[in-house]
Every structure is written in structure tokens, then in C-alpha cells.
Records
---
Amino acid sequence: MGWFQRLSEGLKNTRKKITGELNVLFEIGPKVGDEFWEDLESTLIMADIGAGATDQIVTRLRERSQREELTGVKEVEDALVDLMADAFAPNDNDPFEKNPSCVLFVGVNGAGKTTTVGKLASEAKSLGRKPIIGSADTFRAAAIEQLEVWGERANVEVIKRERGSDPASVCYDTLDAAEKLGSDLVLIDTAGRLHTSTDLMRELGKVVAVTRKRAQMPVHVVLVLDATTGQNGLNQAREFKDALGVDGVIITKLDGTAKGGIALAVSHDLNLPIFRVGVGETIDDLKKFEAHEFSRALIKGEEE
Ligand SMILES: Nc1nc2c(ncn2[C@@H]2O[C@H](COP(=O)(O)OP(=O)(O)OP(=O)(O)O)[C@@H](O)[C@H]2O)c(=O)[nH]1
Ligand SMILES: [Mg+2]
């Protein structure tokens, strides 16, 4: 199955939520006026894409429909896909394409941080880069072992200390090792924590600050968000962004959820680029995010 098909299959449940309504709406077409636009607005809001993005999309679609006299189902649908893609924050600063680059992965418990680090290490390796992994989750039982399994799968070295060590020291060690080995991509896993836990967020702030100070390469903070958490993901993103200055997000578990629309709410409302999306648990199930492709999979489910 090609990538678009996998994304489209993953977004099936989110799409179902939208297209039932949309198909009825599009059959009638924008010629019915206010009612059409109001119904379109509530359909998009129901799909978790948020009031801000919805308002921008519907206002622009309405203008365009009037200006270009769009009435056909396909025309309106294509314009909706375009405008939805435009509502995402631009993604022109991908830390995984920079060389060299150090990335700290943060997020709530179970979001998919460790898995994502493994997938990215493998991707970087296959592109001929020299990644290295740091295990700064020194808190959760078996976190280090889990990361080592990913390191083996990706054939990438994992720098660690015993459980309970200071996570900032692991970041130090990892950067030391990266310099010695000539690594050009440093991927650091951190312990999951609730965005509402002030102490743990402060600790993470310290880890980020120490890493920035020590690193000779640019340091980026990437938030990993589980799509299935829906609207709560928006709160998580806001808190992590405020506390740490997040550079962008990776949305995991888009496979199967009906809440995939949250990707747009987070990106639009908080002006955060989406760097990657996860659609499964295996090493190849992570791909670069493309706004147009995503929007098309969400609305139409088929390739152009
Ligand atoms: N279906 C699906 N599962 C995923 C995806 N990404 C991660 N997972 C699963 O989510 C679960 C948690 O993943 P982890 O990588 O351990 O999450 P974490 O954020 O490191 O968790 P903590 O370290 O406990 O905070 C695992 O069972 C993963 O296989 C994805 O894109 N799709
Ligand atoms: Mg983890």
C-alpha cells in the first residue's frame, strides 16, 4: 500500500465523521446560502479542527465560491481541501532535515515519544546520516530497555545512564558522544509527564536549558501528541509550548482514530508546524507531514 493509501486508511474514521455530512451539503451546494455555510462550519467543528481554523476556512471558501461561482460538488470540495491545507502553520523549519541538529522529544505519558525516536533514527540512518539516541527518560521502569530495543532495530547507538540519574546529565553525555562519533542528528527521548504537573514541567525546562547551553549544534524541542486524545491535545500543546518554546509537533496514532482533525486545531491555533505523522507501531509507520496530502486524505480519501 502506498503512503497516501495508508494515511487515507488511517484517517478513515475521522473522514467518516466529516464526509457523511459533507456529501449531503455538497449535493445541495453553496447556492442555498447561509444555511450551507453554517452547516459546513458545524461539520468541521465536530471534526475537532477547531473554531479558529474552521472560521478561516469557511470564510475564505465562501468568498472564493462567490467570486469564482463555484457550485459543483467537486469544485467546492477541491477548494475546501486547498483552504484546509492553507490553514496549517507552514512547515519550513524541519529539524530532521537540518544538519547537524539536536532534538528533544517531549510530551505526556504514552504519547509515542520513544517509538517516534526509534522510527526517526531508522529514517535518518536509511538516508545515510549518523544519528545517535540519548535516553533521558531515567524515570519510568524499562524506559531505557525499550529505547535500546529501538536502537538495535535502527542500528543506532543509545547513550544511557542508570535509572534514576539526572536526565540533564544524559543529555550532556549524549552530546559528548555525538561530538566524538561525528553524529549529525542527536535524538533525545525524555520521560512522559502531564502538562499540568508544574514540578515535572520545570524539571523538563531545566533539561532543555542545559542541553541548549551544552550543545554546539542547534537544539529543537518537538512535542509528540497522541491524536486519540482529541481536544485535550490542544491543552497539552499550549502548556508545553508556553513552558518550553516548542518548535513543532509530531502527531502519532492517526491510524484508527476519529479525532485526526485535532492536528489542524493544534497547528493553526498555536502556529506550530507538524513535522511528522505516525500511523502505526512499526518502524516504517512515520512519515513527513504534507498539509495538502493530509487535507485531501481527510476530505476525499483518494489521490489526485
Ligand atoms: N497505533 C499507533 N500506535 C503508536 C503510534 N506511535 C506509538 N504508538 C504506540 O503507543 C504506545 C506508547 O508509545 P511509547 O513510544 O512508549 O510512548 P512514550 O511517549 O514514549 O511513553 P512514556 O515514555 O511512557 O511517556 C506504544 O504501544 C506504541 O507502540 C502510532 O503512530 N500508531
Ligand atoms: Mg517513552
---
Amino acid sequence: MRHEQLIGDSMPEDRVDNTDKHLLDEHSDVSKPHSGKIRKCVENLSQNPGAEIVRYGRRKANILSLGQGEGDAATPDFILKGAQKAMDDGRTFYGPVLGQDPLRQEISNYYDRIYDLRVPTNRVFVTSSGTTAMHLALTAILDAGDEVVAVTPIWKNLLGAIELAQAKFKEVALDNNEGAWSLDLDKLFDACNKDTRAILITTPSNPTGWVMSREEIKAVMEFARERDIWVIADEVYSRLVYGNSHAPSFLEFAQDDDRLFTVNSFSKAWAMTGWRLGWLTGPSRVEDAVRDIALYDNMGPPTFTQYGGIEALRHGEDFIAQQMQLWERNRARVQEFFESTGRIDATESEATFYSFFKIDGEDNCLEFAKRLIDDVSLSLAPGCAFGKVGQGYMRLCYAVSEARLDDALDRLDRALKS
Ligand SMILES: Cc1ncc(COP(=O)(O)O)c(C=O)c1O
């Protein structure tokens, strides 16, 4: 059953697969009358190819999945103990909707220590996951019909969250030139119009591992400030940068009252995907609005897990460094394998634990992902799960033991040779 947990980036519901195809066909036609059973925006959610592969993989036993968005290391003991002690101390009751004060303070200290930034606690909102942080931010600012300009490829769930808010998204694709991903700022700015309510950027990027530069962040903040557009920066992978302690943050270039939300999570850097703990930063003037939304949405994050989060921030630096060492070795291993095939074109990721690559002669990534499952029992995420520009790519997560990675690469090799 392990693979079921692991495939995909925490994709809980696999709405679309072959057996449900008739449902998709029926509901994806917006011209058809609304059935009235559930909200139209839910009926019309766009296809999620990553989830389709999750469902497809369930048909087989012993699938090896590197399609997941998490490492295979368990949460370290010092974090577990923080939560265990909180439970022993009776911290099992409802807590403040925007998080326990000690954790809000610890996150503020963390920005001071790691980024040399002053982010007061009234700008820090603890959430039950990065995903929830994103939903709170979108719910706070989007009206039906608003448009979000999203830099892609991007994790599909973020686009789904926009659709659930009854808003629309417009994709601005990163360019891939001579082995490097880059963002054309003119293209991004030209995509914004009077309906644009927000720009959504994930940096470091899942799936490409691209990291936005300080100059680019500064330019986007200036543009957004001038045009009264919100920026939502997903910085969930901010600590997973090779050769640097962290990626540049949008917070470095924002004034306290700028229209900026940053989304963050304990999931990736501290091996806490199952804890469902994250945070959001925003201007202090939205604190009450975010509290109201969280109150009605989920009543705030679980109480005792937050004490694990405090330990993670206080004592997690060695753990992150160790993980990064393993991932850096794995990244080199993957790159070496890709080169040895003579068929794979991949940009080495600057950050994250993903490799996003294209195989010569395999243009249909969804079909290829299914073939990998059928022929060699390997599950990887199809690139089309990350927006239009991802078509033809595959994403592999190398945050696994060296033995598991070698096994996966052997299977991929067999599939390529068959
Ligand atoms: C870019 C990005 N943002 C947010 C998340 C969600 O993180 P969480 O586990 O905190 O919901 C993920 C998970 O894969 C992600 O890739």
C-alpha cells in the first residue's frame, strides 16, 4: 500500500481515470446544463493527469513510485518528541485559529535567523498545510471571474485551487533554452490585464527546480505594486537549494503592507508531509480576514503538531543539511544516467528534489507514464500534470535512498530499451 501514499504530490483524490472517463466527458463540456448536484466549478475542474496516473498505478502491486512529492525519510525524532510532549501535556484542545503563539513567534524568529528579515507575528498565519495556506490566500482575494496569472509548469493543485475559487488562471510558461529554465518578465507582465487579481509564482519551482533571481523578484514586486496586483509566492521549497542555504524570498523585496502572500510548509524540508502543517505570510491588515476565513474553513491547525513544528524550526538545520547532501548525490546520479542514455534531455535542477526531463521519441507523457507502470512497474509523474508547457516531460523525485533510486533508474533503462 506504500505506493498509494507516495504517488503524486499529496494528491488525495484521483478524480480522473479511465474507469471514470465517462464522468469527465459528461462534465467537462461547459455548454451542457448544470446538473445542480454540486457546484459548477467543481463539476468543471480541469483534468488532473497526475491523479490519473495515481489511479492507474493502483491496478498493480509492487509499484515503485518516484512520482511522489516527498522524501522517503521519516520525520526526525526531535520533531516527533515535540509533538509527543505536547500531547502528554494535554495540548489536545482547540487552539487559536491562526496558530499557537509560540509557533508564530518561532516562524518570525526563523525569518530573522535564516533570511535576516523582520516579519512580525501579526503577519504570520499558521495553517494546516501549505495547501491550506494557498486556499486561504486565494479565498481572501479572489472574486468569481477574477484572473490569476500563473508561472508554469506548476503543481496542478495550485491551479485547481484557483478553479475552486471560481476564478480563472492564465499560464505564462518558463522558457527552456540551452539547458536552462528562465522567466521572460515581459511575457509575464504582458499577460496581466485589468482582470488580473494576482500573479502566482512557485520559487523554487516544482517541477523544474528553477529558482527566481533577486532581480526578477524585485521587478515583479515593483510591477505588482504599481498595478495593485497581488503576488502569491509559493516558497515551499525555499530551503532545498543546492549550494545555498535558501532561495531568495519575495519577503526580501516587499514592504510590510505590500499585496504579498507567501505560502510555506513543513512538509518538504523537515520530512513532515503527513503532519499537514504550513504557514502563510501576508500584510498585517489581512490578519483578521484570514482569521475569519480559517475559522469558517477549518478552525485552525491541529494543536499538538505545532509543537513538532517549533522543534523543526529550532533544531532542524542539521537535518536539512544531511538531506540536501543525499539529494545532491542523487541528483548527480540521475543526471549521469540521463546522459548515458543519449535520449534524455534534462536541465539539472538548481533546487528541490525533482528532475524534469524529456525523452527523445516519447512525446505523449501520459501514455509513457502508463507504459512505465505496465511494463516495469515504475510510477513517475507525467509533465502534462504541471500545465500545458509540461506536455512531453516526466518528473522524477529523487528524494529516496540510493538503492531505491538505482532500482528506479534500472527500470527506466529497461523501459527505454524495450
Ligand atoms: C509547490 C507546492 N506547493 C505546495 C505544496 C503543498 O504542501 P503541503 O504538503 O504543505 O500541503 C506542494 C506539495 O507538493 C508543492 O509542490
